[in-house]
Amino acid sequence: MSVRLDHTIVHSRDNRESADFLAHILGLEAGAQAGPFVPLEVGGVTLDFASIPAESIVMQHYAFLVSEDVFTAAFARIREGRVPYFADPHMKQPGEINHHDGGRGVYFLDPSGHGMELITRRYGSGG
């Protein structure tokens, strides 16, 4: 049997807000609430957003490998929504994107403070 990640839980201050935020950026649609979770399927993996007290949330990093077309559309939505974005994970290059390995990449925070990353090329892939 092969191994594949099926789902993971994303702690959120407001599960609907966080799921809808990421769904909007990626051009996807979050699912209906199922118990304590609001699901968002991304590339065959379900992100189950769960509301927990804000003081209990530990920042996580989620990186999404996307096509050039998806990146272009997502980046337009980031800019239209005035979501602060950065070229680096340490947020030292605000208002910029990166071009690592000949692709494009951008970092931004979701409503619960998780670090989100969109890249069009895997790191180390050359270019």
Automatic annotation (TrEMBL):
Recorded superkingdom: Bacteria
Residue ranges occupied by any VOC domain in the UniProt entry: 4-121
Pfam families recorded: Glyoxalase
InterPro entries reported in the protein's UniProt record: Glyas_Bleomycin-R_OHBP_Dase, Glyas_Fos-R_dOase_dom, VOC_core
The name this protein goes by in its record: VOC family protein
